[in-house]
Amino acid sequence: MRALFCLLACLLSALPALAGTLDLQGTFQQGGMVIGKTEPGAVVTYADRSVRIAPDGTFVIGFHRDEPATVTLEVGHPDGSRSRRDLSVAAREYDIQRIDGLPPKKVTPPPERIARIKREAALVRAARARDTDETWFAGTWIWPVEGRISGVYGSQRILNGQPRQPHFGIDIAAPEGKPFVAPADGVVSLVHDDMYFSGGTLMVDHGHGVQSTFLHAETIAVREGDVVRQGDVLGTVGATGRATGPHLDWRVNWFDKRLDAALLVPPMDG
Asked: 95 φ, ψ to 5°?
């Protein structure tokens, strides 16, 4: 009888821990990605949007380059309880990069190119708006290609003396024609051979709004709708679009929030 009483007491004491579960793991700084875990059937709200919850309770959120110091995450649990977390987001300092010698039309596009640029931007926005139910983002990530880091996330670029918007990718200088691979599993969401700014452009959907984008590709080896696995060849490094030399510009988004891809991978070998 005593043993039965102890067992019942242990079970009852565990119930509060099961109710209202919320676990967050990731990088709590500007550009970081955080993976959460709560109960299936919970409702998560962050950044004025309802966040998709996987059947096992997994979800993801991300912090933009200029995310404020404190953001709020709210969870409505299936048992009727609610959790509210004020998340502290560490600020970062960003580099200033000057790039001179670009053709003037690449710095300030001529009026006749504006319609094309708007059409291409709309294609990218549509791909970034995808909210698919796969959780490929929750696995490990690898570098899509190795090489010298020639540009970093968040840096402010001054092109021919004119300040531009911050750079949201990580530039990896590599020989033209060198293959680059999928950093994580996903499905190809956009392929474009020649965008005005980014040249050969490829996007891969990793689920729940997390997208990788690869710019300036010389060739693209996959088609829209293809399922790719980590390490699969996606294309080759190039210098297409607005590029001063061969490199891969790798970017990661959580919907419209620009994340730092370098925070998802271990230090590059060598």
From this structure: -80, 155
